[in-house]
Amino acid sequence: MEFEWTFLDAPFLCDVNSSDSGQRTWWQDSSNSTTYPTDLQLSLNSLTATLNATSFHVILSFSQGCSLVAEAAARGLFTDQSNLCCLVFAGGLLPRYFIQPKEPLLPTVSTLHFAGSKDKAVPMASSQSLAHVFANRTFIQHSQGHCFPSRSSESQTLIQFLEEKYRAASFTPSEDLLDELEALESIYTPEEYSVVDPISKQLSVKVKSEQKIIELMFRFQTGYPEETPLTLTTGDLIGCTKRMVTGALHMARVSIEENEGMPQVFAVVQAVQDFMDEYNAEEEEEEEEEEEEVQKEGTSMDPNGLKKRPTLNASNGAISVDVLSTLTEEASVRVTSSDAPRRRKKMYWGDFCIGKSWILVVGCLWDCCLSVLNVVLLR
Predict the structure, then answer these.
(1) Percentage of the chain exceeding pLDDT 90
(2) What gap in Å lies between CA 9 and CA 6, rounded to an integer?
(3) Residue 50 burial by CB count (10 A; 0-12/13-18/19+): exposed, middle or buried?
(4) Between the N and C ends of the chain, which has fewer C-beta atoms within 10 Å?
(5) How far apart are CA 29 and CA 304, in angstroms?
(6) Closest CA to 93 of 121, 74, 118
(7) Residues 75, 101: contact at Cβ < 8 Å?
(8) From residue 118, how far is each of 91, 94, 145 by CA, in Å?
(9) Distance between CA 222 and CA 58 in Å, rounded?
């Protein structure tokens, strides 16, 4: 993803006697009820002028900058930002004298909130209070202090968040897709089917066969189904072997190719359902045949499906070395070729391309802003 960055300067310099001397701040003293409203309004005016000059997709804010963005959201300054898809906060807190909204803010804009467990400047509870004024929020706790997190796990979380939200915001569903979604809702139960993201129309369909479940996650791009195919990943996998999941995804891909240019979700789900049912039937048949073989040989089956040596008693005497050797070899083959149940979070095929997006950074101090830049550009 390619970004164009705008760094907004705070209008005031920090006190020369403070540890932040030479840095900039959005207001000089928030505890001063006389000067604070004037300082806040001046900062909001600066932010408004920047918003009017460029249509931003993302706004990143840190510490005091989070307070400014929250106040701007409460005052409706983002209403005309039609391209705005997400806000990112780090080490943030609500501004002083903040008036709690009657309804959560910005229901169509996603927000991501980072808070450090070692943050001595802003308590975790303050960052949580900030997050709770927004409707569509995600809260992430990291192990660092008062900073924009820069470790690998948080960096990947941020990158994925930006990609997903920008792609969702740039998505326009076709009439065919809307009709397909309406039909799917009438076919499947709420336990089987759900719209994970109402903006991007991302779907979850859980396909169940006996006690095995494969959750299929469907994503769409503008132009689906006539111009672009859907993208499929897996979600939760319950009781499934790797071989079953691989086979199911293969059948899903075949179905997508066969239904190119047409609504594909129902066909894909049905292809996976048929494969799982057939797979389970074959598995049961193999187990029955194996059990018959075991009974013929006078052996028993343990819970893991491995043959046991027959119980020795006075009537059958001692087991021969040859028979014991054969059973041992068979057990060894079973162990080394076993398809043990495994949980796979995601399996992907397909990819997507997204265009240039504009990001506004509203920080507290410049070094923090630069750390934000590194988080994304060091991808």
Answers:
(1) 50
(2) 10
(3) middle
(4) C
(5) 69
(6) 121
(7) no
(8) 11, 19, 4
(9) 20
Q: Which residues pair with 69 in a beta bridge?
A: none
What Cα–Cα distance (Å) separates residue 305 from each residue in 83, 173, 308, 323, 338?
58, 49, 9, 18, 10
The one-letter amino acid at 368:
C
Q: For the whole model, what pTM was predicted?
A: 0.55
Asked whether 35 and 11 are in contact (CB, 8 A), the reply is no
- Kindly state the tokens that stand for 11: 């209008």
Which residue's entry shows tokens 């540890």?
19
User: Residue 321 corresponds to which amino acid?
Assistant: V
Q: What is the DSSP letter of 319?
A: P
Which long-range contacts does 245-249 make (Cβ < 8 Å, 24+ apart)? 245/214, 245/344, 245/347, 247/275, 247/279, 248/207, 248/214, 248/272, 248/275, 248/276, 248/279, 249/347, 249/349
For residue 32, what are the CA distances in angstroms to 132, 213, 226?
Answer: 26, 59, 60
Cis omega (within 30 of 0) for bond into 225: yes
b vs e for 266-287, b when ≥16 Cβ sit within 10 Å of the residue's Cβ?
bebbebbbebbeebeeebeeee
Domains of the chain with CATH codes:
3-170+355-377 (3.40.50.1820), 175-278 (3.10.110.10)
pLDDT > 90? residue 180: yes
Which CA distances in Å does 26 have to 88, 158, 167, 233? 18, 25, 32, 44
Mean pLDDT of 152-176: 84
C-alpha torsion 77→81→82→86, nearest 10: -90
> What average pLDDT does the segment 304-309 reach?
45
Could you give the C-alpha distances from 101 to 74, 168, 367, in angstroms and in order?
7, 26, 32
135 close to 164: Cβ distance less than 8 angstroms: no
| Residue 329 DSSP SS3 | helix
Residue 304: both structure tokens together = 């893991």
> Which token pair is 305?
């499906």
